[in-house]
Amino acid sequence: MTDRSSLNQAEGPTHEWAALDRDLNRISRVEDATFYIARPMVGFGLAIVFVALAALWAAIIVGGAPGGVMIIVASVFAAYLALNIGANDVANNMGPAVGANALSMTGALVIAAVCETAGALIAGADVVGTIANGIVAPSSFANSDIFVIAMISALLSSAVWINLATFLGAPVSTTHAIVGGVVGAGIAAAGFGAVDWGGIGRIAASWVVSPVLGGVMAAASLALVHRLVIDRADKIAAARVWVPVLIGIMAWAFGAYLAVKGLKQIVHVSMAGALLIGAALGVISYLASRPYIARKSIGLENRNKSLKVLFQLPLVVSAALMSFAHGANDVSNAIGPLAAIVQTLGLNGADVGSIPLWVMVIGALGISLGLLLFGPKLISMVGDQITKLNAMRAYCVALSAAVTVIAASWLGLPVSSTHIAIGGIFGVGFYREWGEARRMSRGLETEAAPAIANEERRRRRLVRRSHFLTIVAAWIITVPATALLSALGFLALRLLMG
């Protein structure tokens, strides 16, 4: 019989090491949990550093000039707003490509940051004037100090609202947020007569026009792709013929889109000229993509999943171009009120229509940094959680965004790029639901849609209704909410400053 004491002595070291391993594992799990909890604080800390640097840079630029303190304060709020615009708005450009697995999250963040900055610095200055002077004229206010306080209130209220929307996972129009902020402060400071209500009416109309146009265009594009490629017996052969055509159409759309939204800030481009530029790029892209598609299609199986390989490159390019155009257009939302303050106080020789470079840099870098620090959450939501996207559906969303902006510009309709992109995703999802219901009614069974009981099909939804309702509600209340916040902020600042 084995002696128990000798057995315990033999097993003692092993038991001790096992206990030590368990303790070390517990410590490792605590370290992992601490790191996980601390990660958001790193982004928060870097954001604070950027805001502080913006204030320091503004202090160096304006020095001890009259009104310099107000410009420094406005620069702080403009930097805060730019960070929030990057965290919220850029998701609309990168979400579809990430959701379709055409881009990794890291790749999307890098491409968007570079293109957003380039678009803002190269082609963003002219657009700023709309926010700076086109909603509430500085001459409507009793004096320049009142106008400056109103613009600071607009910056702060817009930033707070977009920050809240990002926290809740709702992609909102940052254009509408800053417009609401300017309107609310303008009413509180100078009355209802100071506001251009015709312009506000056009913006309100875009609440409906933008998502509907984007959704209809995306659904029509997906129907076309189904007819030309997806529903064909030999999908790969059809793709060799039609995918280069679809790439050419996208190149035309984005060429004209960039001319309308970006290049016209550098040189004057008429709508006809923009369409010609787009047509030239479309032909070049078609000719260049034919051998590329022919080479990529070699050896592909005749399946829908094989087609995503052929749509990846145009998706990456479209995401980059959309980010460039977004930077050129939406940098005005971040720095428009700051530019208006600088112009009103006449510092550094800044006249109306002349935007100092240092002001542009705050907006450009703030948007890019906000994207890098806080953008992944909303990019994932837009790309994955509204409806399931593959490369073909994401292509249709990107194409609809470009074509809708061109059509709206030609018709003179004010539209929101945010609403168009999200509307396109909803359009693709609802089109798929309609297609599934249609196949069910006909009793058809496909690889992607096998036979399922009628009750089960009715229960299934391809668009998450909770996200749909949350986003629509956020769209509706953005302008009233930011206007109210801005009005309250103006009254509080006026009271504090005597």
Automatic annotation (TrEMBL):
It is a multi-pass membrane protein. Coiled coil: none annotated. It is found in: Membrane. InterPro entries: Phos_transporter. One of its GO terms (molecular function) is phosphate transmembrane transporter activity. The chain crosses the membrane at residues 41-62, 69-87, 146-170, 177-195, 207-229, 241-260, 266-288, 309-328, 355-374, 394-411, 417-434, 468-493. Keywords: Membrane, Phosphate transport, Transmembrane, Transmembrane helix, Transport. It comes from the Bacteria. It holds the Pfam family PHO4. GO terms for biological process: phosphate ion transmembrane transport. Signal peptide: none annotated. Its main location: membrane. Belongs to the inorganic phosphate transporter (PiT) (TC 2.A.20) family. This is Phosphate transporter. The lineage of its organism: Bacteria, Pseudomonadati, Pseudomonadota, Alphaproteobacteria, Rhodobacterales.
